[in-house]
Amino acid sequence: MSHSVEKIALKSSSPGTQRFLKVHKFKAAKAGPKVYMQAALHADEWPGLLTLQHLITQLIDLDKRDLLCGEIVIVPYANPIGMDQRLNGVVLGRHSFSAEGNFNRHWPDFSTVTKEQLDKNPQSSVEQYRQALREAVALLPTHTPLAQLKATLLALSIDADIVLDLHCDSQALVHIYANYRQRDESELLAQCMRSPIVLLEDEPGGSPFDAAHILPWIAVESSGCPVSCFTATVELRGFADVDDQLAAADAQGLLNFLAASDVVQIAVTDMIETKVLTTDLEAVDSVRATATGILCWTKQLGDWVEKGELVAQVVRLESDTPEQGRTAIYSRTQGMLFTTNIGKLVCEGDNVGKIAGTQILQNETGGGLLTL
């Protein structure tokens, strides 16, 4: 059996408290890719937490039967800092209370590391690039709890062949963010996860966790070196979609993807053919509230909408005539409504939903993942 569990101590924010990560590692005797998975980097996004519990259970069983290949590293909760950020009983896990920003932004860009390795040796192998990346991660600052957490997660993941970061949206269909260079792998993952939406980008903006793993390879792709890490952000529906039935199905989807990626030696099971809309991230209509008030959707998640079609209304509570006190929200594109905001009291200009279309749009704050 190859399964081990490592406990990694983290900096504490106050006397008398402790923080640590638990890391499940499966290192098989058979050769194969290295896979890294984590959940809840945004610490108030919980579907992935339960999904990985189901997946770990299945992997332990497969490990006992010697059906694993390569290495699998799973961090079942990636952000104990954010999970501890409670205000009046509510976990606020998207941004750091220490004023260090969004937990999934401002990750290091190691492009200069691979470029320097290329300059040193134009014939560098993938392993030589990975060794350079490992050495660079080892030199990252760890002067704050968050800086140490980032360095720790990167030390576990930077040399992986596959990196999957599990998140969720407010209310949403399953959807996947990935790089356009990896469309085939992304669509395979979408089929396994029954995701109807794949959003591709070149560089998502904001330096999220997944970008830290692919940008170093993009930096040297002109040399003929393959982009040697498939990385994707998997959005497992919405905040409230946390139950054993969904988590078990999602774990099976991840297991099917591992089987298709030659990491586990099992037959793919419970696959349901899914019609996948693969489109550019910049073709997403970031739906904005047109007034301040109560948001009422006229369309449901998964609905196909036409450009200019009514998708929601905002009820203006201060209106003297309620039946006339509604402001319409129209779609700016033809496509699928795939996320909506769980909050119904909205302010004019709020991002309240997303529609995946096929035509590039000019979003007010840009098209990157950072702004969506």
Q: Which tags fit this structure?
A:
single chain; 372 residues; alpha+beta; Aminopeptidase; OB fold (Dihydrolipoamide Acetyltransferase, E2P); 2 domains; 9-stranded mixed β-sheet; 5-stranded antiparallel β-sheet; 28% strand; globular
Within CATH, the superfamily of the largest domain carries the name: Zn peptidases
Determine the structural class based on helices, strands and strand pairing.
alpha+beta
Number of strands: 20
Number of domains: 2
Q: Percentage of helical residues? A: 25-40%
Outline the structure in words.
With 372 residues, this protein is α+β, with helices and mostly antiparallel strands. The chain has 2 domains: 273 residues, Aminopeptidase (3-Layer(aba) Sandwich); 91 residues, OB fold (Dihydrolipoamide Acetyltransferase, E2P). Helices cover 26% and strands 28% of the residues. It contains 8 helices and 20 strands. The strands form 4 sheets. A 9-stranded mixed β-sheet has the order 1-2-4-3-7-11-9-10-12, with helices on both faces. Strands 8, 13, 15, 18 and 20 form a 5-stranded antiparallel β-sheet that branches. Strands 17-16-14-19 form a 4-stranded antiparallel β-sheet, with no helix packed on it. β3, α1 and β4 form a beta-alpha-beta unit. α1 crosses α8, α3 crosses α4 and α3 packs parallel to α7. 42% of the residues are buried. The model has no long low-confidence stretch (mean pLDDT 95).
